[in-house]
Structures are given as C-alpha cells and as structure tokens.
Amino acid sequence: MPFVEKPLTVLPPMEVAGRWIKRYHVTADPAGIAPEVERAAYAILPDLLPEPDGTPPATFVVLHRGGDDGAYLNAYSWVWDNVLHFGGAAAGQPVLGCPDREPSHFVTTDRPWIGCVWELPPILHERDAWVRHMLDRPASEAPDLEAYLADSLTDRTTGERS
C-alpha cells in the first residue's frame, strides 16, 4: 500500500496537572478521533508528564488514531529550559504491551520511540516556537509562555509545510 499523509488537526491548549498542553490530533478518519479515545488518552496524560524543574510548564501532545485498532499518545514536555522530555502511551496494540485491541484502553509504553512519520511534523514547529517565544528574547524581556501557547501549526496534512 502506498504511503499517504494524514490530516493533522490542532485543538486549543488545555491545562493538565499544572502544565499547559498544546494539542495535535492525527487520523485518517474524516470524523476525527472518537470522543472515548480522546478522553482515555487525556486521562493517562498526567502519567507521561515530568516533574516540575523550573522550566515554564509547557507540553505538546500528538494523539494519533491508527488505521487499525491502535491509538497513540506522544507527550513532549519542555524541561531543563531547552530539552524535550518524551512520554508515550498506546492503546489497542498488543505488540506495544497493550492488554487488548481496545483503542481507548491506554497503557504507558517503555519503548524509546518518539513517534512515527505521521506524529513527527509538530516537533519542528514546536522547536521553532519555543526558541522564538521562550529563548530568543532580549535580556530585558521575559519569556512569553502565552505567545508560545498561541503559536501552533494550523489544520493541514502531516506532509504540508508552512
């Protein structure tokens, strides 16, 4: 089967466990990700977040509903000022340690994988937004977390570039 890009949808940020979460959803389903899968993914999200370390509390997530039973939640959190911490969870994918094929039964994963080709596009944008709003500031200006949270990709496909 030939490779096909998938729609990428941007949702408003939300607060979870004291961190601001920027949200990206990936799925080939025109209806989007089922509400029960989304609820289950965000219920396990606190388990994927790092302890506070003084870095502004910001994370971006990619929730991906695969073409089979699988669903994946990748949480990328800013730590140590300029480093991404990764936490992952999966559902419906026994090869990743999931107990069944239910796409709303998420478990944390211990694989060192950071994302598949459909899940990676937000990383470049988020890196540049973090530099722009949090790091590359005149000494007289504080980092601007609010501007960072407002700076997201737009709805598109995973292969489009801005």
Structure description:
The chain is globular. The chain contains 3 helices and 7 strands. Helices cover 19% and strands 30% of the residues. Strand 4 and strand 5 (83-91) form a beta hairpin. The chain is α+β, with helices and mostly antiparallel strands. It has a 7-stranded mixed β-sheet, with helices on both faces.
Gist?
19% of the residues lie in helices and 30% in strands. The protein is α+β, with helices and mostly antiparallel strands and 162 residues long.
Poorly predicted parts:
none
Instruction: Name the beta content range.
Output: 25-35%
Q: How would the global form be characterised?
A: globular
Q: SSE order in H/E notation?
A: EEHEEEEHHE
Radius of gyration: 16 Å
Largest sheet data:
7 strands, mixed
What is the terminal-to-terminal distance? 27 Å
Annotation, overall tally of beta strands = 7
Helix content: 10-25%
What is the chains' assembly state? single chain
The total count of helices amounts to 3
Mean pLDDT: 95
